[in-house]
Write a structure and sequence with these properties.
By secondary structure, the protein is mainly alpha-helical. The chain contains 13 helices and no strands. It has one domain.
Length: 324
């Protein structure tokens, strides 16, 4: 039987949890730098991001030469489409980093409206998310928003699901599953809203986290978004702490996004929307630290309310779009 290391100090966070019927936070939440597993995962994310960025810069200059690379950069910075993608990336990452969902839905919708195919849009979004979710996850770890046990339970099955979803979307239209997923999320959104405005009798340890992560990763890669709505909403519906649930889901998303982006590149080739990808990345990188701080500062009830409203509205709209 696991003995939890609870922080029993009279902190504002513990007072907030007591009002909602949640248990006190564990010590590694209030003192995140003391946990070696999270430190190791965080530094792995830092090294992966630094390596990818260095490789892309080297590839740009080695393939096009100094003058060609500078011309590409100049034409990109003067493009209105690029700056539109920056705005969408910033907005989407603020929502995703603070609430644990909706980056893929927002960014994929934007790319589809710009003329990208579903497979190209999903691939572009996941490539962009490698950078945005990486910085977002690092920020959540540093601010104490990550539950180590939950993060590890999400990591492997979520990555496997993402690879399977990437394989499917390159062969079959993932939009076929959208109405069924939307109906499930609508129910979960309403359930989360009910939890925000009634005291919970007890907090249950989330069950079937691995299966949930497998399904969430699959839906996310197959449909261009869905990891946050499926996983975050289900965990919050089970009574999990909103702050550490959102932070853990965000940090795990970096590793499953890395898996799905690699699968997309191997299966479907490099997307033709690199300018859009660059804009989404730039906007998301500026928003990620701000969003993680927002998640830390908002109360648990506020987070539950916003997440519930967002999930309910998006799911209702998706069901309406599928039927009419």
């Amino acid at each position: 039987m696991k003995i939890r290391d609870l922080d029993l100090s009279p902190s504002p966070l513990n007072a907030e949890h007591e009002a909602l019927g949640l248990p006190p936070v564990e010590a590694y939440v209030s003192q995140p730098d003391n946990h070696p597993v999270l430190r190791g995962a965080m530094w792995a994310a830092v090294l992966i991001l630094a390596g990818l960025l260095s490789f892309l810069i080297w590839r740009l200059f080695s393939s096009n030469g100094s003058s060609g690379a500078l011309h590409i950069i100049e034409s990109t910075l003067s493009s209105s489409a690029f700056w539109s993608a920056v705005a969408v990336g910033f907005f989407a990452q603020v929502i995703d980093g603070a609430l644990g969902m909706a980056y893929g839905i927002t960014a994929t919708t934007f790319l589809l409206s710009a003329g990208a195919t579903p497979a190209a849009a999903s691939a572009s979004v996941h490539i962009a998310e490698v950078f945005t979710t990486g910085l977002s996850g690092i920020s959540h770890v540093k601010l104490g928003n990550v539950d180590k046990a939950l993060f590890l339970r999400l990591l492997l099955p979520g990555s496997i699901g993402a690879i399977l979803g990437a394989i499917l979307v390159t062969q079959v239209d993932g939009a076929l599953m959208k109405p069924f997923i939307s109906a499930y999320l609508l129910v979960m959104g309403l359930y989360i809203l009910s939890k925000a405005y009634r005291q919970m009798i007890q907090r249950r340890t989330p069950k079937h986290v691995g299966k949930l992560a497998l399904f969430g990763g699959f839906v996310d890669a197959a449909g261009g978004g869905g990891w946050g709505p499926v996983v975050t909403s289900s965990l919050l519906g089970s009574g999990s702490d909103p702050r550490t649930t959102i932070g853990s889901v965000n940090f795990a998303e970096f590793f499953l996004t890395l898996s799905s982006a690699t699968s997309f590149i191997l299966l479907a080739g490099q997307p033709a929307t690199w300018m859009m990808v660059a804009g989404l990345v730039l906007g998301g990188l500026f928003a990620a630290p701000f969003a993680a701080l927002l998640c830390k500062k908002l109360s648990a009830r506020t987070l539950l309310t916003i997440v519930g409203c967002l999930i309910t509205c998006i799911s209702a709209y998706n069901i309406y779009s599928s039927l009419f």
